[in-house]
Structure formats: C-alpha cells, structure tokens
Design goal:
19 strands; six-stranded mixed beta sheet; 3 helices; six-stranded antiparallel beta sheet; mainly beta; single chain
C-alpha cells in the first residue's frame, strides 16, 4: 500500500472512486465524498502518495456543477489525463490520471460505490491504537519487511467470530468474514475476542 486517504468531515455527495496503481500494480481503492481533495507526497494531503517523483502538493480533484475536474498544482513532473499533460481538465468515468509512478482510474457513482459508503469510513490507526487492539506481539506482524521495504500488512478486520485478521490488500466482506480478492497476504492476528454482530464495521487501515 502506498497511499493514505486522510478524511475530514464526511459528505454524502459528490461520490466517485479512484483505483490507484503504482508501476502497473493495483495498490488501493479510494471512495471520495468531498468537493475537493488534494494529492501529493506531503503528509498534509488528503491522499498521500509515497513517491519521490510526485510533488509535495501535486494535484487536486474538485467537483463543481456536477462535473469532476483535475487540476495540476504547479507540480514538477506534471499531471497527465489519458496521456496528455494538463493544467486543469474535466474528467469522466474511465479516465486515467497519471502523476509520477502512479496511475489513478476514475469511476463515477455506481451501485458498488454506494454500497461501500453505507459502512463507516475506514479509519487510519496510529501505533498506540493498534497496540490497544492487538497487543504488541500481534502488532509485530504488521512491521516493515526488510527485503521489500514495505509493510507486511496494511489492513486489519474482525470476522463474525471476533477473530482479528491482517491483510496485505483491502479485503471485502463475505458471509462470515473477509476476503482479499487480490490474493495477498492474510494473517490471523488475535483470537481471544467474543463474537460481534457489527464485525463488518471493524475494517481499519494501518
């Protein structure tokens, strides 16, 4: 996972999704519910991209008059829509936006996106909160892999039995638990929890 969405107050509309790819590999899926979001390498962006070819404040998406716009924020390497460098450009469903090593595919409102937003927004957990949920021994599973330099796990969630699992990619809920549709790493972290009815609301990004 190379991107982090820092959400502020939730807004029910507009609603669109971004599928995030890095070097051709899918790394994230983001549901956007704000009029304006900024993207860049800096930690104060709504969507942070860990990529040295991306500027600190690289670009933004804005929603106005029922249309979605991409605007380059005077980045060093530019923002490209469907292969063309742009300053400001309206975008539609299926358009590809490239900044640095990342490609974002835009998806407008769909039944699938609406279903995602019926659940609470994903929370970004800090280390102290992660320790509280899992304990230090389980938390060691989410440390950085020395070989790749990437985190072993990026998401945690409880199943219907209350067991905590860790996932490399964002999982999707099924009847009694969670499935990583990209077949990434899946590790059982903690199993001393009681069953819970609201387990579908337990998904957290770490």
């Amino acid at each position: 996972m190379t991107s982090t969405l820092h959400r502020t107050a939730k807004k029910p509309a507009p609603l669109f999704r971004l599928t995030v790819y890095r070097d051709g590999a899918r790394v994230d899926e983001v549901v956007v519910t704000h009029d304006v979001i900024t993207l860049g390498r800096g930690a104060d962006n709504d969507l942070r991209l860990d990529d040295h070819t991306v500027s600190t404040h690289h670009m933004q998406f804005s929603y106005t008059g029922g249309r979605i716009f991409v605007e380059d924020l005077d980045s060093t390497n530019g923002t490209y829509v469907n292969g063309h460098r742009v300053k400001i450009q309206a975008v539609v469903d299926g358009d590809n936006i490239v900044l640095g090593k990342h490609r974002l595919t835009l998806h407008t409102v769909s039944e699938e996106a609406v279903e995602v937003e019926r659940h609470p927004p994903t929370e970004l957990l800090e280390s102290s909160e992660l320790d509280r949920l899992l304990g230090s021994s389980a938390r060691s599973s989410v440390s950085v892999n020395p070989a790749s330099g990437k985190k072993v796990l990026n998401w945690i969630a409880q199943d219907a039995k209350g067991v905590w699992w860790g996932f490399e990619h964002q999982p999707q809920p099924d009847d009694l638990g969670w499935t990583d549709t990209l077949n990434g790493i899946r590790i059982q972290l903690k199993e001393d929890e009681a069953p819970r009815r609201d387990w579908r609301e337990s998904l957290r990004k770490i």
